[in-house]
Specification:
Elements: E1 6-9, H1 31-38, E2 41-42, H2 46-50, H3 55-64, E3 70-71, H4 77-82, H5 89-98, E4 109-112, H6 122-131, E5 138-141, H7 152-164, E6 167-172, H8 185-193, E7 209-213, H9 218-237, E8 243-247, H10 254-269, H11 278-285
Parallel strand pairs: 1-2, 1-8, 2-3, 4-5, 5-6, 6-7, 7-8
Helix pairs in contact: 6-7, 9-10
Length: about 290
Amino acid sequence: MSGRLHLGLPMWANDAWRGSLYPPHGGAQGYLGDYARVFSAVEGNTTFYSGAPKPETVATWARQVPTDFRFCFKLPSSLTHEHRLDGIESSFDAFLEALDPLRGRLGPLMVQLPRDFGAEELPRLRALLARWPSDVPCAVEVRHSEFFHKGAAEIELNRLLISQGANRVMLDVRPLFSTSAQGHPGMIKAQDEKPKRPLHVISTGNFPVVRFIGHVDADINDRYFHPWIARLALWIKQGISPFLFVHTADNRHSPRIARRLHDALATHIGSPPLPEFAGERQVELF
C-alpha cells in the first residue's frame, strides 16, 4: 500500500494571501475552507505561542475541512521551552483534550525543543513519548548542535524516536542560508530566527515531517528541492506518508512556492496539479 504526500504551509490565517490563495475581498472566516481546498495539511504554529484553542473554535475548524485534511499543531512553548517537558503531564493531557474534536484529523503534533535542549534531557522526552496516545502521530524537532554530529547524542535520539514510532522533523534551511540576506529585511529576520543546522534526512516513523525554508529566489528553491523529489517519492512508494511544509522569510509567497515545488514533484508521485487558488479564480471571472 502506497503512502501519500501531505502538503501545507505554516498557517492558514494570513491576510497577505488575499488576491492569490484567497479572494481579494471577503472575511477571514473563509480562509480555512479556501486553504483546505488546495492544501492537505497545516502546521498551525499559533498553538506554540498561544496555547490550546477553545473547544468551540476547534469544533468549527473540524467542520471547515475535509476528512483527509491534517492539522499538525505544535505543543505550546510553555511545555517545551518554559518547563522543558518537566512536570507537564496534566498540561499535555489538557492540550490533547482541547484538540479532541479534531481526533482523526490530526497529523503529527510537533514537539519543537529549545536550542539548548541536549542529550542529558532526553529522559524527559522519553517520558513524554511514553505518554503519547497511540492514535496521534508525533514529530520531534531538535535544535541542539550535538544532535547533528552523528555521534552518541544523535544515535541515542534516533533510537528513542524509532522505538516510539515518533518522527524526526527535518528542518531544511539550506535555501535560506544559501546567500547573504542583505537588502531583504524578511530574510535577515528569518536567518536570525532559524537555527543553521545540517540537514540529516532520516525517517524514524511513518510520517516524516520536512520543513522547507525557502529563499526569495525561486531558482535557488528549485535547486535545493530537487533531491527531495526522489526521497519523497521513495517514502510514498514504501507506504510512508510524508508531510512537507513550505516556508519563506515572511511567508507572503509561500503558497505560490509550494505550488511550484509540488508541480516539480507531482509527476514522480502520480499526483494531480494543485487546485486553482480562490483569489486567482476570482480574478479570472472578471
